[in-house]
Amino acid sequence: MTQVSKRTLLKAAGWTALAAAAALAGCGKKEEAPAAPAPAASAPAPAASVAAAPMPEPLKVAFIYVGPVGDGGWTFAHDNGRKAVEKQFGDKVSTTFVEKVPESADAERVFRDAASQGNKLIFGTTFGYMEPMLKTAADLKDVKFEHATGYKTADNLRTYDSRTYEGAYMAGVLAGGMTKTNVLGVVGSIPIPEVIRNIDSFTLGAQSVNPKVKTKVVWVNEWFNPPKETEAAQSLINGGADVLMQNTDSSAVLQTAEKAGKYGIGWDSDMQAYAPNAHLASSVINWGPYYVKAVQDTLDNKWTSGQSWWGVKEGAIDIVSISDKVPPELKAKVEAVKAGLKDGSYVIWKGPILGQDGKPVLKKDEVADDKFLGGIKFYVKGVEGKVPGDK
After folding, report:
1. How far is Cα 104 from Cα 273, in angstroms, rounded to an integer?
2. Closest Cα partner for 148 from 317, 249, 300, 287?
3. Nearest to residue 347, comparing CAs of 300, 318, 295, 311?
4. What was the pLDDT predicted at 51?
5. Is residue 352 reached through a cis peptide bond, with omega within 30 degrees of 0 on the bond before it?
6. E strand or H helix at 145
7. Could you give the CA distance from residue 146 to residue 122 in angstroms, rounded to a whole number?
8. What is the rounded distance in angstroms from the CA atom of residue 4 to the CA atom of residue 14?
9. 168, 202 Cβ separation under 8 angstroms
10. Which of 26, 75, 217, 268 could form a disulfide with 67 if both were Cys (CB 3.0 to 4.6 A apart)?
């Protein structure tokens, strides 16, 4: 609430009142000022010119989530980003969120409802919202839309993403150095380039310290389904995997590893507390820096459409809570990769890199650009099985 200070204007007392005050002053402490002011009832009303102008309304910002905020992973990380916005801007913004919105036509209804409630900046936080957001943005030109992990834009819709493959690579370095069976396991969500790229990067990271490793994958075809994730993780363990990673949104895979006496990597958020004995580290996303920038752009009337893809360099990706079980020399290798990604001296997707068939997908010293990375639909050498839908 804005507090408005009111200034009271006083009139000088008449000579008769002054004389009376002087007489009274002789009986007590001498006063240098004239008599006390007249009663408030006689004071004039404040001038209109000194009244403070009303504060501008806060920017209303909505976040639409595919999972529950308590998933401990993907949606939890996005909601931490929302809280970072509130902390940064205070009463300049008002944020709300809707959780567990499926990747379906119903998402469009949720976006329109958020706009009808006065939200002028709306974040859709999963790939499957792309078409519903495009359709909504076309009709609501006065609202700015931001779509996570997508690739289609409009005048009032831009996309943003995090380079999760960087975190997957660092996780792979740990997994490759800690495995005893040389078999790693990944629980995959949906076989889109983002997820396939993470599986490949995890494998490349592991091979950088242990060329003997193989990676097995089980797909659940959902982002958040703890029972399915548990079943998939157990299947991988039964197949010989002793270090697990997932590209799903819950902590179920890590908890399954703990029950089986195996190792696991947390994903999207720090999952150490869920399975402290199994936890080697967590590959985390910090959405806060991007969300703060997007809101600041909007407040400054500098928001423009486009695409953003942030990683370790921008503070969006990190590997945290590395276990004491990890040998110092292996931890040092991970920290060296992180430092190289931070300053640009380390490149993950640099040839020679081979596909499953043994043929180069990147020739010696060839560096993948973002277009290449965005279209990855193949497994690198060392990943077993076939990409779903691949002929």
Report:
1. 33
2. 287
3. 311
4. 53
5. yes
6. strand 144-148
7. 6
8. 32
9. yes
10. 75
User: In this structure, what token pair is assigned to residue 193?
Assistant: 């380039």
pLDDT at 24: 32
Vertex 341, ends 340 and 346: CA angle to 5°?
A: 55
How are strands ordered across the β-sheet holding 121-124? Answer: 93-98, 59-64, 121-124, 144-148, 157-162, 307-310
- For the CA atoms of 147, 153, 158, 163, the dihedral, rounded to the nearest 10 degrees, stands at 60
CATH topology for 59-163+288-313 is Rossmann fold (3.40.50)
Under 8 Å CB-to-CB from 25, ≥6 apart: which residues? 31
State both tokens at 246: 């997932």
Q: Which two tokens stand for residue 37?
A: 């002011």
Taken in order 302, 306, 312, 318, the sign of the CA dihedral is positive
Look at strands 317-320 and 360-362 and give their pairing.
unpaired
Q: What is the largest CA-CA distance in the chain?
A: 110
The fourth-level CATH superfamily of domain 164-285+315-374 is Response regulator (3.40.50.2300)
Extract the tokens encoding 327. 């040998």
Instruction: Work out the end-to-end distance of the chain between its first and last CA atoms, rounded to an integer number of angstroms.
Output: 62
Which runs of E-coded beta strand occur in 163-230? Answer: 183-188, 214-219
Q: Which part of the chain is CATH 3.40.50.2300?
A: 59-163+288-313, 164-285+315-374
Q: Report cis status (omega within 30 of 0) of the bond before 227.
A: no
- In this prediction, residue 381 carries a pLDDT of 98
What's the CA gap between 80 and 78, in Å, rounded? Answer: 5
Total residues found in the chain within this entry: 391
Number of H helices, E strands in the chain: 11, 14
pLDDT at 54: 67
pTM: 0.85
pLDDT, tens digit (0-9, with 9 covering 90-100), for 352-385: 999 999 999 999 999 999 999 999 999 999 999 9
Q: How far is the C-alpha of 140 from the C-alpha of 358, rounded, in Å?
A: 49
Residue 107 has which token pair? 């998402």
* Tokens 């009142």 found at: 17
Query: What parts of the chain have a pLDDT lower than 70?
Result: 1-55, 391
Other CB atoms within 10 A of residue 278 CB: 26
